[in-house]
Amino acid sequence: MRIRGAVLTASGLARPYADGQPLAIRDLELGEPGVGEVLVRIVAAGLCHSDLSVIDGSRIRPLPMLLGHEASGIVEDVGPGVTDVVPGDHVVLSYVPSCGGCVPCQSGRPALCETAMVSNGSGTLPGGYRRLTLTDGGEPINHHLGVSAFADHAVVSQASLVKIDPEADLVTAAVLGCAVLTGVGAVVNTAAPRAGSSAVVFGLGGVGLSAVMGARLAGCHPIVAVDIVPAKLALAMELGATHTVAGDDPDLLSTVRALTGGGGDTVIEAVGRVATLELAYAATHRGGTTVAAGLPAPDQTMSIAPLSLVAEERTLKGSYMGSGVPRRDVPRLLALARSGRLPVERLITSTIRLDEINAGFDRLAEGSAVRQLLVFD
């Protein structure tokens, strides 16, 4: 079938993207779903820093590529062997199509699926297939993290789908697939804090603000939110933070330590910058846990004093996809959202059309937007 989508042909172009148009809106041919694959009509897709990192060149992916990995939609057709969903099902998409059979999957850690790591890195669906080609010339187009949601339709593995309640708002549900799963999960799954312990969140994008909400769900107190954008600090207070600190405050570290009695018991870094992660580690209390949830460039390294890990019993942990199990966690997060305990709709800055996507990434890069949702009629 013919679809329209946003294809990245070259990374590292200078901003503003609204002028350079690194994402070209193209007509594509989408192949029929193969064995274990599903055709999904995309309803909404979020603009995320993981997409931006491919656009700006800090994360290398095979090009040309149809971007987009945080999305929701409706199943329209299924390929042979699909048993998990049927046409008409409402779904949230997961950017790690976990195989279920590798050691991490069998150990209850599907976010670390080894099979998905290979296919996601090579720009294919599981099994090595590509279902996208340009209408003009037939050039193959790579898939982004098994999803490629910046188009009106996508063919994905059934392992990329989480079925949700059809009464739920599908547009809002899109943010559950990445921002909320990652941010809330970094707190409740990766750090697993005790109620009453302190939490600090560095970086208040979609993931960081979700971490603030996760800290509130976990019963943390105080909850300190750090960012350089005043509007995001104000939103963090509305979502559960008890204190905020400006990220450019020259006394930031001493202020955070004063607010938390010497440092946070759980400190989340959701920026993806080494300097911020080192600051987050310094802002962690003796015996506390620092969680790296942002994605730094692959060539960056950090420096810590190993003695602090031993003598202060520190923990430095990574959190990919919130250490989540999507088919377990997404329905739980959705239930919390619908009950009012997890106001994920507050993360949505605006909805945009496909032809506005480059300007949308300008807003994301400059920090003026939290989550913009690309919405298809």
Poorly predicted runs are none
Based on helices, strands and strand pairing, what is the structural class?
alpha/beta
Give the overall silhouette.
Answer: globular
* CA-based gyration radius: 20 Å
Helical content stands at 25-40%
- Per DSSP E runs of 2 or more residues, the count of β-strands stands at 18
Tell me, rounded to a whole number, the average pLDDT: 97
Number of domains: 2
Q: Tell me what portion of residues adopts beta-strand conformation.
A: 25-35%
Query: Helical region count?
Result: 13
CATH topology of the largest domain: Quinone Oxidoreductase, Chain A, domain 1
**Major sheet size, sense and barrel closure:** 7 strands, mixed
- Report how far apart the termini are: 17 Å
Name of the CATH first level of the largest domain: Alpha Beta
- Going by CATH, the architecture of the largest domain would be Alpha-Beta Complex
Corresponding CATH superfamily of the largest domain: Medium-chain alcohol dehydrogenases, catalytic domain
* Quaternary structure: single chain
Q: What can you tell me about this protein's structure?
A:
The protein has 377 residues and is of the alpha/beta class. The chain has two domains: 2-177 and 343-375, Alpha-Beta Complex (Quinone Oxidoreductase, Chain A, domain 1), CATH 3.90.180; 181-320, 3-Layer(aba) Sandwich (Rossmann fold), CATH 3.40.50.720. Helices cover 29% and strands 26% of the residues. The protein contains 13 helices and 18 strands. Strands 3, 5, 6, 9, 10, 17 and 18 form a seven-stranded mixed sheet that branches. It has a six-stranded parallel sheet with strand order 13-12-11-14-15-16, sandwiched between helices. Strands 1-2-7-8-4 form a five-stranded mixed β-barrel. Helix 6 (179-191) packs across helix 7. The longest helix has 14 residues, at 326-339. The radius of gyration is 20 Å and the shape is globular. The protein starts with a strand and ends with a strand. The model has no long low-confidence stretch (mean pLDDT 97).
